[in-house]
Amino acid sequence: MKVMKLNSGVKTIAIMIYITLMINCSYKPIPTAEVNFLTGKDGTITMRAIGVGTNIDDATNDAENNAINVLLFRGLPGSDQKVALIGTNEAEEKNKHPEYFNNLYKGKRYKTFVMSSIPTTDLIKHKGGKKSIAVDIKVNVAALRKDLEQNNIIRKFGF
Asked: Which range of residues forms the domain containing residue 136?
């Protein structure tokens, strides 16, 4: 009798471990704000960014948005733009200049600084209907910096 109860207990534990492993092995987290430096030359930077969305356009826009965000608030290690163009306190900066950032992101003005945006992967499906894509994005950092100066978001270098 004890042997039967022990065997059924072992079977139950084995099944629970199997189910747990299957659930954990199939989970693919959605990448967020992954931006890596590729090349930089003459006031431009090319990055590979991951974007998330429900379709290719949404995911590509998200990747471009992530690339601009990294330049503005994080900096890009390995590039000439190692430090953030604006500063690392993103919330504070956006609160100081709400009209500028609303126009930049919601008005999609950031696209005027994106010189090219080339998807390098197909859309990858994730749980919840979201999809991600890797995109190579070339940004005119010199023009972005000049725009930030003209709108008094940052001070001109040396002044």
From this structure: 31-150
Q: Is 143 inside any structural domain?
A: yes
Place of tokens 């006031």: 43
- Is the distance from CB of 30 to CB of 130 less than 8 angstroms? yes
Task: Name 159's Cβ contacts closer than 8 Å, sequence gap at least 6.
Answer: none
Residue 73 lies in a domain: yes
Start-to-end CA distance of the chain, whole Å, equals 87
User: What pTM does this model have?
Assistant: 0.77
CB 50 within 8 A of CB 132: yes
Query: What does 126-158 look like in DSSP terms, one character per residue?
Result: -GGG-EEEEEEEEEEHHHHHHHHHHTTSSPPTT
Those residues whose C-beta lies under 8 Å from the C-beta of residue 29, and which sit 6 or more positions away, are 126
Q: Evaluate whether residue 45 is within a structural domain.
A: yes
The answer to whether the CB of 66 falls within 8 A of the CB of 117 is no
Q: pLDDT, tens digit, for every residue of 37-75?
A: 999 999 999 999 999 999 999 999 999 999 999 999 999
What is the phi-psi region of residue 104: left when phi exceeds 0, alpha when psi lies from -120 to 50, beta otherwise? alpha
Nearest-5° Cα angle at 70, 55 to 102: 70
- Asked whether residue 4 is domain-assigned, the answer is no
